[in-house]
Write a structure and sequence with these properties.
Blueprint lengths: L1 H15 L30 E3 L9 E8 L6 H10 L3 E5 L1 H6 L1 H9 L4 E5 L13 E2 L2 E2 L4 H17 L7 E2 L8 H9 L3 E2 L4 E2 L8 H9 L5 E6 L7 H15 L2 E3 L6 E3 L6
Parallel strand pairs: 2-3, 2-10, 2-11, 3-4, 7-8, 9-10
Antiparallel strand pairs: 1-12, 5-6
Helix pairs in contact: 2-8, 7-8
Bound molecules: zinc ion (ZN).
Zinc ion (ZN) binds next to loops.
Length: about 260
């Protein structure tokens, strides 16, 4: 009973906490009431990778968002030490602040695929709307700038041209999806919200991620070193490895996304 109450509390946390990271899927509620009259239809696409079909070696794609702020060494050092491949979505803002972590990525390109999380971490929605209190890009021009500005910063940091984009909040409207696709990107949804926008506790986070199934795309954050969730992420990485999981990056295998994000 206590555990159920605790879980409920934790699931509600993102409603009240800062929207700095991605809030969890469970709380993808309607846009703010004042926007209801002109609210665009927002989607939060799912993404899976092709399954291994091997019960003892399930295939999982770990994806981490580096929204802004710092690098979580608990996660980064575990990935490097355990040689666990992952896809990292970086913003221009985060790249600028974390050159030492960028150097680690560049020194381990056999592990890390770096992809585009935008320039300023504004949602890739082409009409003015608030999402979790964050103002969306608001126009097609601003969506283009968010995507292109993220890619430009990656190239300037010495990273390869990105092929996947994931916007802040992981929400989009269909016209923005079309626009980003026309810019040459696939859009990275996810199937398992690992850390509730980095706001969940360590144990809950560990359990969620450690339970990943064949074909899952896990979303977690690598930019909140002071949050408990990162400790759970690091422990879950070890648990997945012990289970014999085949770790893949998004470019390694076919991805199947909802809402015309990959096809
Ligand atoms: Zn983010």
């Amino acid at each position: 009973m206590r555990r159920a109450l605790l879980t409920t509390f934790l699931l509600l946390l993102p409603l009240t906490a800062s929207a700095q990271n991605l809030p969890s899927k469970q709380v993808t509620n309607q846009p703010a009431a004042q926007n209801a009259a002109h609210a665009p239809k927002l989607v939060e696409p799912q993404l899976h990778v092709s399954r291994s079909g091997n019960a003892v070696r399930p295939r999982v794609a770990l994806t981490f968002d580096a929204c802004m702020g710092q690098a979580d060494e608990r996660i980064l050092s575990t990935l490097v030490r355990e040689r666990i491949p992952a896809t990292i979505f970086v913003t221009a803002r985060w790249l600028k602040k974390n050159p030492q972590s960028v150097a680690i990525f560049l020194n381990n390109l056999d592990l890390f695929e770096l992809e585009n999380h935008g320039q300023n971490h504004v949602p890739a929605v082409d009409v003015p709307v608030l999402i979790y209190g964050i103002a969306a890009a608001g126009s097609p021009e601003a969506v283009r700038q968010e995507v292109a500005g993220g890619a430009d910063a990656m190239l300037a940091a010495g990273l390869a041209p990105p092929r996947w984009f994931r916007g802040s909040t992981a929400k989009y409207d269909p016209s923005a999806i079309r626009q980003i696709r026309e810019m040459g990107y696939r859009i990275a949804g996810y199937s398992l919200n690992g850390d509730g926008g980095s706001l969940l506790g360590a144990t809950v986070t560990e359990k969620r991620i450690a339970a990943a199934k064949d074909g899952d795309v896990v979303l977690a954050h690598i930019n909140q070193p002071t949050h408990a969730a990162g400790e759970g992420v690091a422990r879950a990485l070890l648990a997945l490895k012990r289970r014999g999981v085949e770790f893949v990056r998004l470019s390694d295998v076919d991805g199947m996304g909802d809402d015309n994000t990959t096809q």
